[in-house]
Target: N-acetyl-gamma-glutamyl-phosphate reductase
Amino acid sequence: MIQVGIIGGAGYTAGELIRILLNHAKAEIAFVQSSSNAGNPIDTVHRDLIGETSLNFVAEPDFEAVDVIFLCMGHGKSKEFIERNSIPDAVRIIDLSHDYRLKAEGNDFIYGLPELNREVIRSSRRIANPGCFATGIQLAVLPLAAAGVLENEVHVHAITGSTGAGQAPSRTSHFSWRNSNVSVYKAFQHQHLGEITQSFKQLQNSFDFAINFIPVRGNHTRGIFASVYTDFKGSLEEAKDLYKRYYADHPFVFVTDENPDVKQVVNTNKAVLHLEKHGDKLLILSVTDNLLKGASGQAVQNMNLLFGLDEKEGLNLKPVSF
Model:
């Protein structure tokens, strides 16, 4: 049984991790750390877990009790945590922040997008879990990069639910502002652009084009709908064949002939892709749950790979229809 520790246990991603791991046949939660909630029952914060667990939050982690820790803290906090704690080499780390996603000197974390790096992940010890927008956008484009056919700029318009902003309240996540409202933020300069570009270049070293990304705050709570288009010389059938071959052995990515919607993937670790050809442009629609395939579900998928388990273990999650 894999013993798991969660650092920064009060946020949305930690809540989703706890929910998944409580029902994971081959993993057990040893502790959930939260400085601000130490001593309190977990279900007083994550109220959907009432009746599911009797665990309390702890103030300090016990690294000797675990095989793996998930870091569910804000950006910048993971690096601080690792630098101030002596984490045994035997303890594997899966970081859900932005801190280690970009390659840099001294960074030994592997970028944890299984559809890009699955075999490398299996033999790794430290994983940088991808960003939520980055996951949906990359899955929309990776087959093109792998085939070396990205020959122009990539255009992205993607809308995300309010949970993507985290649990701490802010002006733009407050219900009365967010409800019945839509707004653009960080146009052309979103923090996920670096990791997206890095992955495209990993598959197609010649990729040197702009990724024109317009992120949108939606008035729903969870789910990302990304509309991506770029030049493609082949036919629609050739594109579909390319995508189906690339994702043939990746169990969470599905290519559909039907125009998708967010509710198909909410509460699941799925990514659903739909392709259309319009003149010389290939349009790829990509839908994911920002808290699951875009965060906690993918983190558990990475844990499964690290420990030699079936990639799908614990992730047979059902969509919410209404």
Q: What stands out?
A: The CA atoms of residues 103 and 220 lie 33 Å apart. The helical segments are 12-22, 77-84, 114-122, 132-146, 175-178, 193-203, 236-246, 296-306. The chain has a mean pLDDT of 93.
